[in-house]
Amino acid sequence: MLLSTHHQLREQMRQEVDCLDCLQDILTQEYEHLKSRRVEALESLARDKQQLIIQLEQFSQQTAQLLQQTGATADKAGLEDFLSSMEKSLREVMLDEWEQMHEKLFECQQQNQLNGMIIEGKQRNATQALAILTGRQVPQNELYNQKGASESPLDARALAEA
Question: Coil, strand or helix: which one is 152?
């Protein structure tokens, strides 16, 4: 059973890495479109990105289930426990693949944050331009609350005091 679970886990990790590679490609495309202001392609990229995130969540759940079926926890320590009965070379390969998978995930997170900062800057510029065009006061240092709605720093302070 352990060998079968090992093969399932390894295949699961390979699929997850492939999915992360696709996500990295989409995030890179998104970045290029944001930089060059080609917003027409962003909608389809957002759909593709959402699909990949759903797949990654499914892979993560399946990996957790596989590890839990063996009595291990669904983290690196659990993987190490599961692999402790395997031969050393196989254990090292699996741990290396696990690390590579998490490095790819980190790279995707970094690229997504960069893309988010670009979007935030463009939103701020658009809001300021609209305020100027409509004759309203230009918002200064606008913040976003937990629901994603914008609020001024004064509103945030009043909430903090209450």
Answer: coil
| Length of the chain counted residue by residue | 162
CB within 8 Å of 43: residues ≥ 6 apart: none
What does pTM read for this prediction?
0.74
User: Which structural domain, as residue segments, surrounds residue 66?
Assistant: 2-161
What CATH number does residue 67 fall under? 1.20.58.300
Question: How does strand 150-151 pair with strand 143-144?
Answer: antiparallel
Count: domains in the chain: 1
Q: Which of 63, 48, 50, 51 is nearest to 16 (CA)?
A: 63
Helices assigned H by DSSP within 36-87 = 42-69, 76-83
pLDDT digits (tens, 9 = 90+) for 73-88: 888 888 888 888 888 8
